[in-house]
Amino acid sequence: MDYSQFSVEEFVADLSFVQWVKGEDEKLNTFWADWVKNHPEKSAQVEEARELVIMIYSVVDLPGSQPTADEISASKQHIIQRISDRQFQPSIQNKHSISRYQPLAAVVVLVIVSSFALWWYQSAFGRETYRTAYGEMTTFTLPDQTTVTLNANSVLETSSSWNKNESREVWLSGEAYFDVTHQPDDNRFIVHTEVVNIEVFGTEFNVHNRRSEAEIILAEGSVKLTSTSNQSASVSAFMQPGEMVQLKGGTFNRSQVDVEKSTSWRNNRLYFEEESLAEIAQRLEDNYGLQTKFSSPQLSQLTFTGSSPTDDLSILFIALSEALGVNVSLQENTILVQNNQP
Q1: Which domains does the chain carry?
Q2: Residues with Cβ < 8 Å from 58, sequence gap 6 or more?
C-alpha cells in the first residue's frame, strides 16, 4: 500500500491506520511509527487524521454483539453533529479552519458503516490478516497447510478456515511466495490482487503486486491468470514452470527466468540482473521504505548485476559504488547516489 499519496480522508478510512491509532495491533505500532518517521512531509496530515479517528471512535466503538440499526443511526448523527459544531468554531490562527472538516462528514459515516461491516464479516467468517513491516519477512502456514513466505511491506488476507467444498482464496498486496498443497477434491487455490487473479491446484509460485502492476513467477505446476482490469472482457493466460508473466495495463508479457535468482529474497538474498539504479531504488523503497536521490538523472540509468544479503544493505551500497564508479551512501532514510569526486 502506497500511503505516501494518501489524503487525510483516505487515512481516516484506512483500516490499518485506524487500528494503529486505536492501539489494537503491536505490529502496526512498529509499522506506522517507522512510516511516519520515514515520511515527515506527511506528519501534519497524519496528525489531523489521527485526531479525527480518535474523535470518531470516542463516539462509536463496535461492541461484542451486533448493534441495532437505531444505535448505528444515532452514532452517525452524533458524529456528524460534532464535526458540524467543530467546523464553525472561529480560529484566529487558521483562516481556513471553518471548512477544514466539512469534506470529512461523509467519510466519517463511511468509516462507521465499513467498520461495522468488517466487524460482522470477521465475526462470521474469521478473516485473518498477515502483515510485514519494512525490512521484515515472515513464513506461515495456512489452514490447508499451504506455506506462504511474505516479503517486506506486504499484506495477505485470508479466512481462518476453509470449507472443503469451496475454493481457497487469499488477497495479496505486496509480494509473497506460495507453496500450495494439492487437495484430494481438487479445490482451487486463488490469489487475488489488484490487477490479476492467480488460480492454482497445487504448485509453487511467486507474486509481486505493487502500483497497479503484477509479476508472477512459476516454479512448479501450472497456474491460470485472469486480468481483473476494468475491461469489457477479462483476459486469461496459462503459465509453465520457469516463466515470468508481467501484467501492465491489462496486457500479459511473458519471458523465461531463473526462478531461484528471481525469488532469492525468500532466502535472504537480493539479486539484480541488468537492473537500472532507478529500478533498484524502487525495490529498496518498496521493501525498506528508503527514498533515493541522484545527483544527476543519468546516474539513475546505470545498470547493475549482482547480489547482496537482505539484512545488510551496506554490502549492496559498497558493491554498487565499486561496480559503477559512483558514491552510494545512506543518510538517515535517504540513499544518496553521487558521482565520485575527481
Answers
A1: 3-125 (no CATH), 128-261 (2.60.120.1440), 268-339 (3.55.50.30)
A2: none
Q: Which amino acid is at 259?
A: V
- Model confidence pLDDT, tens digit, residues 300-330: 999 999 999 999 999 999 999 999 999 999 9
DSSP structure class, residue 152: S
Closest by alpha carbon to 148, among 165, 171, 124, 121? 171
The answer to whether the pTM exceeds 0.70 is no
Residue 314 main-chain phi, psi, to 5 deg: -60, -30
Residues 6+ apart with CB under 8 A from 67: 75, 116
Q: Is 233 exposed, middle or buried (0-12, 13-18, 19+ CB in 10 A)?
A: exposed
Is 55 in a helix, a strand, or coil?
A: helix
Contact, 168 vs 187, CB < 8 A?
yes
d(Cα 92, Cα 83) in Å, to the nearest integer?
Answer: 19
Angle, CA of 287, 291 and 292, to the nearest 5°: 115
Place of cell 472538516: 101
